[in-house]
Each structure stands twice: as structure tokens, then as C-alpha cells.
Amino acid sequence: MNLPDWTKPALYGAGVGAIALAIIGFTWGGWVTGGSAQDMATKQSAADVVSALTPYCVQRSLDDINAAAVLVEFNAASASGRRAVIEKAGWATPLGSDVPNRALAQACQLALQAET
Q: Which stretches are transmembrane (predicted)?
């Protein structure tokens, strides 16, 4: 079987072009693998849940009959201990859950600090 002389350079060019396209696409083009896309979607959905539940946490702090005592403890706590005060008060425990959400407690802490 005789192939034309241009076949070999054309195949090399197509191969090198495909490799270059893949490198450029994954490096600068924003392409991701399925696993990376799933990880990004999981992180974004968790962040969206926290963002949606932060007003719920703040409202629970306003509705709590022990809010005054908890807020005194909150203001007296160190910056790193304030999240624990919110978790202990139960304000960062979503409905249907038995344990507080750490990210929600952190977001609630920041919201409460902005209000006080």
C-alpha cells in the first residue's frame, strides 16, 4: 500500500495539534475532568446551603429566650471560641440534624459580629 508523501507530516501535525489543544484547554481554557467538576459542585452546593441558612441562624439567635446570656458569652469569648458558643446554643443546627454545621456556625458568627 502506497501512501501519499504528505500523510506522515499530516498525522504528526494532527497529533501535535491535539496534544497542544489539550494542554491549552486544561491549563488556560477552563476545562476540567468529571471528578474535578463534581468536587467543585459539591463545594459550591455546601457554600450555597450555608449562605441560605445564615439568616435562619441569625433568626434563631433573635428568637432564643436565652439569647441575652448567650450573646454575653459570645461577646466575652475569643475570636476562635465564638463559633463554639453558637454551636453550643444550637443556633447552627439545621432542622432535621442532631449536630451543628461548622460552616454555618462560622457564617452565623460573622453575621452576628456585624450586627453587634
A: 12-33
7-42 residue pLDDT tens: 999 999 999 999 999 999 999 999 999 999 999 999
Query: What is the SS3 assignment for 64?
Result: coil
Give pLDDT, residue 17: 96
The dihedral sign for the CA sequence 87, 90, 95, 98: positive
Centre a 10 Å sphere on the Cβ of residue 55 and count the other Cβ atoms it contains.
12
Grid coordinates representing 62? 433573635
Do residues 86 and 92 touch, judged by C-beta distance below 8 A? Answer: yes
Q: Could you tell me the CA-to-CA distances from 67 to 9, 26, 43, 54, 57 in Å, in that order?
A: 76, 51, 31, 17, 12
Sign of the alpha-carbon torsion through 35, 38, 42, 47: positive
**pTM as predicted:** 0.70
